[in-house]
Write a structure and sequence with these properties.
By secondary structure, the protein is α/β, with parallel strands linked by helices. The protein contains 17 helices and 24 strands. It starts with a strand and ends with a helix.
Length: 547
């Protein structure tokens, strides 16, 4: 079942959070083929915390972005190998399972390295092709690779040795063997008594016998021999081939490998593969344990997150990475912005006071019963965005919804709304930049880049004491976000008045508002940023652009 994210705008307010949760709930009721999850892409404010606590609902999980992640495309059911396992197992994976890379893990599933076609090639294609190769053997692997059995087990668990076949005449064999260190030689031989006894007397670390039909053929004196004796049921040529594949994976693996985590961006995986010339990457979790594999083909296939945008429709207000996602729906009550999609989508837009009002209507349209906790979220979202139905954005539709939800919940919405707004933190207890960014929206109009934040208070007297601090914070926000100017609308929801703080911009003198000082204005009766303040700002910018 594919997952679809329902996300509000950056710096979410109560309507954004409440609408995301409520719409995800509704979609899960009417669409059983997908899983809808509400997320937030910013911190929740005190008012929203109050709402969620009263509704007994956990805040949506935070996501910093929605770029495609490694976890969206990686293979999770990974065939791995232990360090002591024979490379033969890796070769079988390549041949039978078409797996081009095998992670090597320890007993706790932590990744030690990787064996791929590249490592296998490097191991068997020695730098000096004229030099006799030396392998590191772990005799216990013989049984896993070479059909046969042990006649005797030696002292050494592992040793390095070259391979010698006892096929020469005895005299030539002895003459040849004396050129090598016999303590680092594995002998593969048939029933050649003279050759075998020479090897045993010289303490070669292992003897592999071929062509032995029964115990009667083993009439050699192994007493006092400390090495390994293995009986192969295969012919000599095949025994030789298999013997080289008994080498433990740890001697072929590349230990210094790039790894990536499931939550890393898919683009980061692509860059890492190209930088290290790898066809795939090991994916590890926070405990450095194997979590999966991501390959070049996974990256090339790509992936798009699926999202529903609520309470906004402009990309500069959306979660980071939204431009890479597949936008399925937009539910909003703001002006139309700049969202572009590759195919038709459901766009639910209505000039009402709250996105929660639109979502409530959808509950009615689909005849889905509203549980009380979801009903409280919807009521709270409407009351918050309409400032308890006082905002000029409030419609008769909003008022009707509030009445219906209040009856459903058996609450006095006026009393509940007051408690909800009084839950907002005092400006004195918060950092000015935090207040500005908590509900800050960026705009690009008439060649200007600007932003307007809004904060609701229950007493405008607070801002008089803090003006200088907030003005300095506004300048920092302006510079950091590379804007032409920045504003903060401080709204008294009890007396329905506002004060506007603004950084300098030469068109400000055309604003109709009365100046209180060099950077603040009196806005009596103004509650709405989008319906009252923004149109006035756009008016003066348009006039400026024409001159």
């Amino acid at each position: 079942m594919s997952k679809i994210s329902v996300v509000g705008h950056k710096n979410p307010d109560s309507d954004s959070i409440c609408s995301a949760i409520a719409y995800a709930y509704l979609k899960n009721k009417i669409d059983k083929e997908h899983e809808y999850c509400a997320f937030r892409c910013g911190n929740i404010n005190s008012q929203t915390k109050f709402i969620l606590e009263n509704a007994n609902i956990t805040a949506p999980a935070f996501i910093s972005d929605i770029y495609p992640k490694v976890k969206d495309v990686m293979s999770k059911d990974v065939v791995s190998s232990r360090a002591d396992s024979p490379v033969f197992n890796v070769m079988k994976n390549i041949e039978n399972l078409k797996i081009r890379m095998t992670p090597v893990v320890d007993a706790s599933n932590k990744v030690s390295g990787i064996v791929s076609i590249l490592e296998i090639n490097d191991y068997f294609m020695t730098s000096d092709i004229l030099k006799k190769p030396v392998y590191t053997f772990r005799p216990e692997n013989f049984e896993n690779v070479i059909d046969g059995y042990f006649h005797a087990k030696g002292e050494y668990d592992e040793f390095s040795a070259s391979i010698m076949v006892g096929a020469m005449p005895y005299e030539r064999y002895v003459e040849h063997m004396e050129k090598f260190d016999l303590s680092q030689t594995v002998l593969v031989v048939g029933k050649r008594r003279d050759i075998v006894e020479f090897a045993l007397s010289n303490e070669v670390p292992a003897v592999i016998l071929t062509g032995i039909k029964s115990s009667e053929d083993l009439d050699f004196d192994f007493s006092g021999y400390k090495g390994w004796v293995y009986i192969s049921n295969l012919d000599t040529a095949e025994t030789l081939r298999r013997l080289t594949l008994t080498v433990p994976a740890k001697y072929l693996m590349s230990p210094d490998i790039p790894v990536i985590t499931p939550n890393d961006d898919l683009d980061d995986a692509k860059d890492l593969m190209l930088r290290h010339n790898r066809r795939g990457l090991i994916v590890v979790d926070e405990n450095e344990q194997l979590a999966g594999i991501v390959t070049r083909s996974d990256v090339l296939k790509g992936h798009k997150q699926k999202i529903i945008m609520v309470d906004h429709n402009e990309m500069n207000q959306a979660v980071d990475g939204a431009e890479t996602a597949e936008i399925l729906e937009v539910v909003d009550h703001h002006r139309l912005g700049t969202v572009k999609t590759t195919k038709p989508i459901q766009f639910l837009a209505k000039p009402v006071g709250s996105t929660c009002s639109i979502i409530y209507e959808q509950f009615r349209n689909y005849n889905v019963e509203i549980p009380k906790n979801i009903g409280l979220l919807l009521l709270s979202g409407v009351l918050s965005d309409t400032v308890m139905l006082k905002s000029p954005t409030t419609t008769l539709f909003d008022k009707e919804i509030v009445e219906e939800l209040a009856n459903l919940l058996n609450v006095d919405y006026s009393e509940y709304g007051k408690k909800m707004f009084y839950a907002t933190d005092s400006l004195k207890s918060r950092e000015p930049e935090e207040v500005i960014n908590a509900d800050f929206k960026k705009y690009s109009e008439y060649g200007f880049e600007f932003g307007i934040g809004q904060v609701e208070v229950v007493n405008l007297n607070e801002i008089d004491e803090l003006k200088d601090d907030f003005f300095d914070a506004l300048k920092n926000v302006r510079d950091r976000k590379k804007l032409d100017f920045a504003m903060l609308l401080v709204t008294d929801i009890v007396n329905t008045d506002s004060v506007l703080l603004s950084t300098e911009f030469y068109a400000a003198k055309r604003l109709v508002y009365r100046k209180l000082d060099d950077y603040s204005y009196d806005l009596p009766g103004v509650l709405s940023r989008k319906k009252q303040l923004l149109p006035e700002v756009l008016r003066v910018l348009e006039e400026t652009a024409k001159k």
